[in-house]
Structures are given as structure tokens and as C-alpha cells.
């Protein structure tokens, strides 16, 4: 079917005659994947705590519902975002139902959803915590209105998205009907008020325009022209040729850094919302084949890789794009990790390029796992490179059982599980990740064992297939060597292909897990702040100091002013920390092995095994110039840092 996309701004003169594009790679169904080993225990703990516990089904769920009764979001000018929590909660519950296949959870979700719709969805389709239905932008009389927050549409997006996911997983017609009513209401409301989405919400409309992703899901399900029209309008606004921070797709082609697109990047360059928009744009390309949109998504991804990679393996500084690659005081919002992984999943399925799986891998094992508490019940709002503890999500927007990031985090376990393998359009099976798992893919099944990436031993891969298949293995870019059954192999473009006859085949794989010193090229963070700057969001020094100490006063004085190096073992960022047995002075010491020809070697095991509070300890030997040498106990960064205790300490800097 041909589709005609006419997009304004830089696209206005181009009548794109494009067709939907097919994914190069298709992921397995979530229900066909089981995480085993350590990642399996982590996701099971998270589901137990946040889906199956009496707290999750009781106080947590009920508080999300209560927000629709109290209309707390209308208070104090209406900038609250309790509106997002029912949807976020249900997106996680729906993912858990799909992953576990638990029919009783499905029944519970639908019962609760139907009661929720009965009580709160108005006959015209409106469904929100905001009692003031037409409150779509704060202070519209203010010429600078886009500075002010209104989360009415942002929150509705999450309810809408959850209803679509509940329908997809359970087939429930009522959920789909309710989602359609929400979309129809939004379209009618915008028309009645003479508004477009870029003139609503917060951050120049990017919070509202992130509805693009679920809107396109509805479009795919129904093919009703009004949904495609609203999606086209969003893309037109994102592409507009104007010096507007909301014109993300236009700005993506700029040569200067993301943080230079805005007069105040610490206000405008909001990572979570921007990443959410780009996930929708990738889906827009899939459905329309619009090459200009695709080029913009790729251009923006290149900006992120060049400017915004932080030392924890995700993108952004705190919750903004502020040239994170240039800062040693690493901080990142957990939601930015969640959506960075989601964007890379989209790009992998659309291209089949191994590098996106590399980025997902580093982000999952480091930034993501660091941000989830060990019992899986809660998470960090901001994950830090070093200090005493992350900023474990404090109460927010008038709620006690919910916070933006813990409410999002479970989705990453499911996104990760679904990204372990894929089927290529050329018929090959692809194995992307090597953590212990069992996967049904096409008519085959794959089992991966070996404790990767924490263990030293080889990875065993077993394939059962009823017909001869090609199995293509991702060889991570960090692995200098790679062997199959003890024989060294050369990868091509990040892949190595095996042929398997019908029946069962098994291989042992070995990667190069020797430690790598990776110098962080950041300049030193400019501290202390210069007195002539008094705007804490544009002065990075003040920004850094403020947010390093925010809610964690014991971190006063822990900002680094010196650049440093990271040491990685496979995909794991290594770190010193109390839980690994590293003493506090050594952990937080600002001296560094950056520069000067240092070498690193590892041996497994602690000198004092009794003291270890983590599953893996290695003794790291650092040999430097002039025959200097020191030996420190280390573990992986996530394991030493996912502890919410002010008397903990950790650092990924060496
Ligand atoms: Zn968040």
C-alpha cells in the first residue's frame, strides 16, 4: 500500500511517496523468553516486589487510582504529574503478565482496568487526573508560556499506552475501545481549542508530542485516518524550520551540540521526553517509510553517541542533554537509561546493526542494574558515577508509593529479555546477548548458559531446530578475540555465522574478558562555580554541585574536578566500593591512572572473602610508570552501587 506523507517545514516542498518499511530483525515474543541466572533472579525479584506483592496490588496500585479522585494535579498552578502513574504501573503489570504468562495476573489487571474505566472515563472519552479538562498549557497568557509545566497530555499518554498494551496482551476489546475514545477526545479537544500539541504541555510541547509512539500503535491497529493525521501533525511540528527547542527533527541535522541548541539547555534539553519523541519517530519511519524522518533519527543518535555518553553507559547528565561526555561527575536519570535502551532496540530492529546491541548491553549491565535496588522494589532517580549512594527516588509530586523512575524501570527488564535474540529477514537466527536465558525463536529454541558476563568460564549455546539454520552470533566490539569450541574466529561487522543441521547443536564461546583501561577524555568539571554565574542550570559547576548533594548531604565535597579512566571487563564497568572491600580513601581518591601507560590485570577472589557484600570480587593489579603498582579489590559497578545507604561508598573512576 502506498502512503503519501506531506510534512511541513524543511519537508514542505517534498512530497514523499514512501511505503512502510519492514523490520530487518524481528524480536521474539516476550512470553517466549525466560531470563535465567543472575538477570533472571533480578527480574523475578522485581516482579515479586512490584507486581505480585500485597503492597503492589494494594497501596501502590490504589494510590495511582486515587490520583484520579483527588485531582491533586490541579493544585498550585497544575504542574503535577500524578497523571502518569496509573499508566506506568499498568504498562509494567502488562509486561509482567506477558513475560510470566500468569493468567491470574491478566484477570486481575482487566478487572481493575474495567473498574477504573467505569469510574473515571467520561462519556466524551476524557480520562485524566486533571479535573480541568481544557488545562493543556500553563499560563497561556504568558508570552513565555512554554516554560511552564502542564502534564495533562503527558499523563494521558501513559494511560492511553497502557490500555493499548493491555489490549495487545489480553485481546480485551474494552481496553482498545477506551484508548480510541481517549485519542478521539484529544483530537476533538485540540480542534475545539485551536491548539496543536507543540503548544501544549512542557518543554515546547515535547512532553505532549511524545504521545506519538502509542498513537502510532493505535494507528497500526485501526488504520483510521484521524490517528495518522495527528501523527503527521506531530512530525510536522518536530520538523518545523524555526529556532524552537521543540523542533527536534529539524535540530537533529544541526552540526553544533545538542546542548548548544538551547539558550538554557539545563531547562530545555530534557532527555526523557526527547528520547520518548525519537522512539515515536522511529515507529513513524517504520509505518511511513519517510526517509527524512529516518535520517533525522539517525542524525540525533549520532549526536548522542558523540556528545552525551556518560560513564555509566547511558546518555545524559542528570536529566538533560548537557554534553555529558565532557563531565566526570556522571549522573543520569533512570528513565533516560530506560528510553536509551528502547531507542537502540528500535534502531537494531530497523537496521540489524550489531553496534546497537553493544550499546544496549553496556547500558543494561551498568547504568540500569545500578539503578535497581537489590530487592527489586525501588530504584534510583539519578544514578551516579561515584559517591555514597545514588539519588534513590525520593517522594515526588505528592505521592509516597510512586516515583517517576521506579515506575518505569521494570519495562527495561522486559525490553532486555526481548532483545536477547532476533530473526533476521534473511532467515538467520541472531543471538545478541549472552546472559543465561532460554528463548523460543521462530521454530527453533536457544539456550544460553555460563553465567556471562560475571563468570570467567565460556558461554554455552544450544540450538534446537527442526531444519538446518544459520545462527549468527554478535561479537561485541570490546572483545579483541573470539573463539568457538576453542578455535579463534574472525567476526565481520560484529557478527560470526554458524551453520546448524536440524536437531540439536551446541557450541562453547569465549570472549576476551581481560580488563581494559578506557580513558575518559572529559575536561575537568569546572569547580567551584564562578561567582559571576548565578543561574544554577546554565552554570554546569553549580548544577553539578547542587545535584551531587541533593538529598544526599553526606556527599558534600565529593565532586571530582579531575578527569580519570574507567576500567571495563567485558561489558562490565568495574568499580571500587565498600561492598567489594575497597577502603573509603582508596575508593574516593581523586588520583587517577589516566595517561602514562598503566596496565591492568585481574584475578578472581577477595583477599578477605568474609567482607565481600557482592557476588563477584576481583583483585585488580594496576601497574604504572616507574614500577609503581597497586592492588585493589573491585567488583562490577552495579553491584557496589545499588545500595541505598549513606555510609556506603563506591566509584567507577580509576
Ligand atoms: Zn524518571
Description:
With 654 residues, the protein is α+β, with helices and mostly antiparallel strands. Helix content is 38%, strand content 17%. The strands form five sheets. Strands 7, 19, 20, 21, 22, 23, 24 and 25 form an eight-stranded antiparallel sheet that branches. A seven-stranded antiparallel sheet has the order 4-11-12-13-18-15-16. A five-stranded mixed sheet has the order 3-9-10-14-17. The protein is globular and about 75 Å long. Zinc ion binds next to α14.
Please give a quick description of this structure.
The chain has 654 residues and is an alpha+beta fold. The protein contains 19 helices and 25 strands. The strands form 5 sheets. Strands 7, 19, 20, 21, 22, 23, 24 and 25 form an 8-stranded antiparallel sheet that branches. The chain has a 7-stranded antiparallel sheet with strand order 4-11-12-13-18-15-16.
Mean pLDDT rating: 92
Distinct ligands = zinc ion
Unreliable spans are 1-15, 528-538
Supply the CATH architecture of the largest domain. Alpha/alpha barrel
* Terminal-residue CA separation: 56 Å
Oligomer class = single chain
Radius of gyration: 24 Å
| Tally of contiguous helical segments | 19
User: What's the overall geometry?
Assistant: globular
Percent of residues in beta strands = 15-25%
Q: How helical, in percent, are the residues?
A: 25-40%
Largest sheet data: 8 strands, antiparallel
Q: How many domain units?
A: 3
Q: What structural class should be given to the helix and strand makeup?
A: alpha+beta
User: According to CATH, what is the topology of the largest domain?
Assistant: Glycosyltransferase
CATH C-level class of the largest domain is: Mainly Alpha
Write down how many β-strands occur, each being a DSSP E stretch of 2 or more residues. Answer: 25
